[in-house]
Structures are given as structure tokens and as C-alpha cells.
Amino acid sequence: MKTIGILLFDGFEELDAVGPWEVLSFWARRFPDDGWQVITFSRDGAPVRAAKGLVVHPEHSYETAPSLDVLLYPGGRGTRAHLDDEAQLDWVRRQRAKVPLMTSVCTGSLVYARAGLLAGRPATTHWASLGLLQELEPTVMVRPDDRFVDDGDVVTSAGVSAGIDMALHLVARLRDVERARQIRRGIQYDPRPPV
């Protein structure tokens, strides 16, 4: 069984984590023979309060989480504290050394940039944080118009709802395009903005 871990922390943007969770857990539960599971975890495993007040109880802590094949780092105001948290940045660097695929939604990529994961690489983030991404890592090749950027072992996505698109891309990449289409139909994701 391969594992996708979604990191949770105080101040994460709800849809950054829950949007990909919907896509990826729908996949794992509907198609268990594909061999994937999705877990949530936080530093200490205690409940966390998201940016707009949703309280979520992660399944695991850093210590109890199984080995990850994919790490998803959501964004939100809570990432700002991570930019100056050396213990958290060291943890991210350790993950880079052992997790085959590092992904982020929204300002999660800022933490990756600060930890040195995006040096010389293409990446994106929420439109309002593109300048900060460049400031944190001057060599990053910012892709302001991309919903997500797949650079092999690192995939970053733009803000909030773009995480759903990235998660569908992950299904296509980790399984195949037809499975991603099945998931998209299953969750009835067919964006047609009313305005």
C-alpha cells in the first residue's frame, strides 16, 4: 500500500487540504486495488484549527505517520510561521530526502522555497504570493499562469481550488488518465463559474 500524506497545521486554508483530500480519498476508497491510501497528519497529532475556523483532528503525528510516497503541503496564513521555524524547515528537508514526490497547494510552496527545495526549478503559488515566492528563492522560475507545475519529484499548484486540479493530475500521473476522469466524474467536478 502506498501512502499520500496531507499535512495539517493551524491556519491551513481549508480547501487547500480538503479539495485534494476529496479527490485522492475518493480514488483510494473507490479503487482500492490501485493500492493507495490517504492520511492526514500534523506535528503532534493534535486537532488543528484551519484558516476559517474548521477544526480537524489529524489521524497521525509526525512520529506515527507511515512512510510517505507523496507529501501534500497545503497553504494558508499558517505557512507564514513555518517560514521562520527552523525545526519545521529541517523536517521539510528530511522529507525531501525520503519522500519520492513532494507536492504543495497555494502558499505551501513558500515553505518549500524557504527550505531550499525550489532552487532553479519552475513553481507556482497563490497569485498574491508570487512575489514572495521569488523573494524567498530568487532562482525559482515562477509560473504565474499555471494552475499547477509538475517538475518531476516536486509538484506545486496555484491557490486554493487549483489543488483539486493538481490532485486530479496526480491520479493521472500515479495511475492513468482514465482513472482521473473516473474520479472527476465521481465527484462531479466540472467547473463552470457563474460569473
From TrEMBL:
Domain DJ-1/PfpI: 3-172
Source organism, top-level taxon: Bacteria
GO biological process, one term: regulation of DNA-templated transcription
InterPro entries attached to this UniProt entry: Class_I_gatase-like, DJ-1/PfpI, INH-QAR
A Pfam family hit: DJ-1_PfpI
Gene3D superfamilies: 3.40.50.880
Protein name as annotated: Thiamine biosynthesis protein ThiJ
Species assigned in the record: Parafrankia colletiae
